[in-house]
Amino acid sequence: MTGTTSLTETELRYQLPEIITAALPGEKAAAILARRSEAIPPSLTCVYPVAIAKAEGAIIEDVDGNRFLDWVGGVGVLNIGHRHPKVVEAVKKQENDYFHAMINILTSEKYIALAEKMNEIVPVKGFKKRTFFANSGAEAIENGVKVARAYTKRPNVIVFSGAFHGRTLLTTHMTAKKANSVGLGPFPDGIFRVDYPNLYRKPAYYTDEEAVAYYIERIKRAFDELTPASQVAAIVFEPVQGEGGFIPAPIEWVKAVRQICDENGIMMMTDEVQTGFGRTGKLFASSYYEEAGCAPDILCTAKSIAGGFPLSAIVARDEIVKGIGGGLIGGTFGGNSVSCAAALATIQVIEDENLCERSLELGAAYTARVEDWQQQYKEIGDVRGLGGMIGVEFIKDRLTKEPAPELVNALIQHCVQNGLIIENAGTYGNVVRFLAPLVMTDDQLEAGLAIFENAIDALCTKLA
């Protein structure tokens, strides 16, 4: 393509993807990527030839002037898009007053205001709620487990196949994929794993209803084979598995988990690090559970909470967190004042711009298009998700459902070379995840779908 001048920031959020360099990475990006390879650990892998210079909404511009449509959003961090003006304004205003006040030393009104707002909007079981903050999703999960253990006076936690909960020592152990933990042990004990309800890969010849019953029975069997129910503090799961492949938990399964927890004095804890803040069509996926009478006891969330600033939250009803001992939770930077200001603005943007509704619109449009492709290309095995959180699973054979990770890797490279950034997921790396900012325009959605379709047409096999 011919070169163009760099766009101003005020125009960028409304533009379409465009590659202006002869190849990717361009000259300036290549120089930065070379510095990267020398300066940081190689385990921090990156397959995208992009060095970001600026971003707004769903559009990234690199240092060479190429524009990319971002369908990854910092892996779910940017539901309201890059540099939303209202968040920028709130951050600047807070920075003019002060940056940080550790909650154990000083009381920041922003921390209190955000806790009050979270207590108002987060769907956990119970009337009165309390919230405290940490820095990352993994920290939130660690603190949620602490709270559950302290309240129940029990040591053990049940997690699931396909789960991803973080990269700290505890959350790495809670995470299913053991490639993430090679050489990092020994790990904390008390973590037990059972099967997550993946209906696309359910036992052969089962109906969905039979499969749900099977997966419920697996939890009950765990009390005989892995840990007595009387020793379980919490059952922890993602309402839609993120790294596991964008697999939504069936509502009948969730109802059964809620009943199991109630019958055995176990905390039901939802990991909404990736599903929170409008991604699934409601502020939280657990809002669907609340409507169905099976809200969690503890909810942990992060990623899109603060529009790109580091922050996470742990929310539970009053009786669960009120009695936890002094000094057992919290941390130096948890609830940083600038991050809290950004989070308050982020929630306001989601409400004012009806981004939960927009999530449903984007998810429906994306799903409809992919389901049409599914009728044309044999490698598209499954399309699933909740709201705007959609996964597309690619396979080699529809009968065996053999995963096709090599194809997904090729799709990623084909798309980025044409201005669309997508990412894989799934136990086998064969799922393309849709995590586009919810502020993406209709024109940008159509441009992205065209690039994705061209990649599929170039790399997949048409059905007869």
Automatic annotation (TrEMBL):
Keywords assigned by UniProt, alphabetized: Aminotransferase, Pyridoxal phosphate, Transferase
Gene Ontology molecular function: (S)-3-amino-2-methylpropionate transaminase activity; 4-aminobutyrate:2-oxoglutarate transaminase activity; identical protein binding; pyridoxal phosphate binding
Metabolic or biological pathway, per its Swiss-Prot or TrEMBL entry: Amino-acid degradation; 4-aminobutanoate degradation
Reaction it catalyzes: (S)-3-amino-2-methylpropanoate + 2-oxoglutarate = 2-methyl-3-oxopropanoate + L-glutamate; 4-aminobutanoate + 2-oxoglutarate = succinate semialdehyde + L-glutamate
Pfam families reported for this sequence: Aminotran_3 (PF00202)
Residues annotated as transmembrane: none
Class of this enzyme: transferase
SUPFAM superfamilies named among the record's database cross-references: PLP-dependent transferases (SSF53383)
PANTHER family: AMINOTRANSFERASE CLASS III, LEUCINE_METHIONINE RACEMASE
Record-given protein name: (S)-3-amino-2-methylpropionate transaminase
